[in-house]
Amino acid sequence: MSGALLVAGTTSDAGKSVVTAGICRHLARRGVKVAPFKAQNMSLNSMVTRDGAEIGRAQVMQAAAARVEPEGAMNPVLLKPGSDRRSQVVLLGRPVAEVDAMSYRALKERLREAVLASFADLRTRYDVVVCEGAGSPTEINLRARDIANMGLARAADLPVVVVGDIDRGGVFASMFGTLALLDAADQALVAGFVVNKFRGDPALLEPGLAMLRRLTGREVLGVLPWLPGLWLDVEDSLDLADRGSLGYDGSLPPRGEDVLRVAVVRFPRISNFTDIDALAAEPGVLVRFVTRPEELADADLVVLPGSRATVSDLAWLRERGLADAVVRHVSRERPLLGVCGGYQMLAREIHDEVESRAGVVPGLDLLPAVVRFGAEKVLGRPRGTAFGEVVDGYEIHHGVVTAEGGEPFLDGCAVGAVRGTTWHGAFENDGFRRAFLASTANEAGRRFVPAPDVSFADVREQRLDALGDLVADHLDTDALDRLIEHGAPAGLPFVPPGAPGGTQL
């Protein structure tokens, strides 16, 4: 098999990432050498690959689904919002600019060249490349400079499958509208639809599916059932709205006598909150994302996670009364962990002329450390030890923390039950996670016992296999194969906007 496919969506969070991962796992299980690709990703969840590139965490997950090593070419353009109006542009794994919507346009030709070169490179080294679109392909105000959706499909002559989330409602209107708002040349590449997150008997959908086929001349390639618990390396904080209190299999019973309650502060610019996924995989660990001081009252462990805007999110923490709640938590000798931006907030002071340009800002003064922001971003894949266990992590930051006391903790420091590190991904190391949770439970006075047999790598593999099963069991895989190998069928009809108006229902 040889070819490529673009998975687009009617909206953000329609299911493009998981469908792309599912197709990658389905093909990999058949012995196909397959790679994921996302031309342009906007996300604050990222990772550092072995080749030193920063790419979206979703593409790392999709590479795992494809059973290949993630690399910079799989996500050549990554946008990391620092405010409502400005984003950092990461090109081929390295930051190149801070832009707003207007100045971003000046970069588009350079980005387009990098996108097409990266895609062409992957095509020479893999049998199949499964591309994921960004947002919606019918953001018609942006179509002229699009490099991630139909712009990529047109440039590379890719067949396009459009995914719609039926759980949100309005899936038939969104699918028809997505097609109808495209011009004729774009429509010619849209080969079919996939309905995602359906609860119930698929037979109930058949009248609507039949009408969609008749109105568009395109096939519905399948209906994917609702499958809870697939929070895997999600792209942005939209996904946090559905989490609340979470564990991978609901509230798993603890192995000891107590549940361990973890409160993760949900900053406005929270980043790399996938660090918490491995904690949520542990039986008896209840993880909550919180935004109010009272939500910290019964927490055994409070986590200040990563942030793309440390100084701004620290001000938010103070404005909301959460900073005082964190200090009260520590005063009760309860454990506190800061990761990357969260660690920076725990320092005595922050010197920032780079990210916020706020100058010297007082931190929470819970750890003896000083932060200085540098122009160069630190990207790395460090290894160390903590609690007698080997820890592999990754780091992505401009703020450099210098510890001036305390006990060593990974690359950071600890004072009593307060700990800080710039390393992401530490909890994916099973031995370290268990030792950290055991220490945390002891410090919090909980009779919680970490499970000795939970492998987070196995948890992730099970979820990826579940995605592969979704594709194999519920999509027309023969039709997918034909699209990948032969492209969109010739002669697909053009559907003008408003076409259904006179249709007899």
Automatic annotation (TrEMBL):
<dbReference type="GO" id="GO:0009236">
    <property type="term" value="P:cobalamin biosynthetic process"/>
</dbReference>
<protein>
    <recommendedName>
        <fullName>Cobyric acid synthase</fullName>
    </recommendedName>
</protein>
<dbReference type="InterPro" id="IPR027417">
    <property type="entry name" value="P-loop_NTPase"/>
</dbReference>
<comment type="similarity">
    <text>Belongs to the CobB/CobQ family. CobQ subfamily.</text>
</comment>
<keyword id="KW-0315">Glutamine amidotransferase</keyword>
<dbReference type="InterPro" id="IPR029062">
    <property type="entry name" value="Class_I_gatase-like"/>
</dbReference>
<feature type="domain" description="CobB/CobQ-like glutamine amidotransferase">
    <location>
        <begin position="261"/>
        <end position="431"/>
    </location>
</feature>
<comment type="pathway">
    <text>Cofactor biosynthesis; adenosylcobalamin biosynthesis.</text>
</comment>
<dbReference type="Pfam" id="PF07685">
    <property type="entry name" value="GATase_3"/>
</dbReference>
<dbReference type="InterPro" id="IPR002586">
    <property type="entry name" value="CobQ/CobB/MinD/ParA_Nub-bd_dom"/>
</dbReference>
<dbReference type="InterPro" id="IPR047045">
    <property type="entry name" value="CobQ_N"/>
</dbReference>
<feature type="domain" description="CobQ/CobB/MinD/ParA nucleotide binding">
    <location>
        <begin position="6"/>
        <end position="230"/>
    </location>
</feature>
<dbReference type="InterPro" id="IPR033949">
    <property type="entry name" value="CobQ_GATase1"/>
</dbReference>
<dbReference type="GO" id="GO:0015420">
    <property type="term" value="F:ABC-type vitamin B12 transporter activity"/>
</dbReference>
<keyword id="KW-0169">Cobalamin biosynthesis</keyword>
<dbReference type="InterPro" id="IPR011698">
    <property type="entry name" value="GATase_3"/>
</dbReference>
<comment type="function">
    <text>Catalyzes amidations at positions B, D, E, and G on adenosylcobyrinic A,C-diamide. NH(2) groups are provided by glutamine, and one molecule of ATP is hydrogenolyzed for each amidation.</text>
</comment>
<feature type="active site">
    <location>
        <position position="424"/>
    </location>
</feature>
<dbReference type="Pfam" id="PF01656">
    <property type="entry name" value="CbiA"/>
</dbReference>
<dbReference type="InterPro" id="IPR004459">
    <property type="entry name" value="CobQ_synth"/>
</dbReference>
<dbReference type="GO" id="GO:0016874">
    <property type="term" value="F:ligase activity"/>
</dbReference>
<keyword id="KW-0436">Ligase</keyword>
<feature type="active site" description="Nucleophile">
    <location>
        <position position="340"/>
    </location>
</feature>
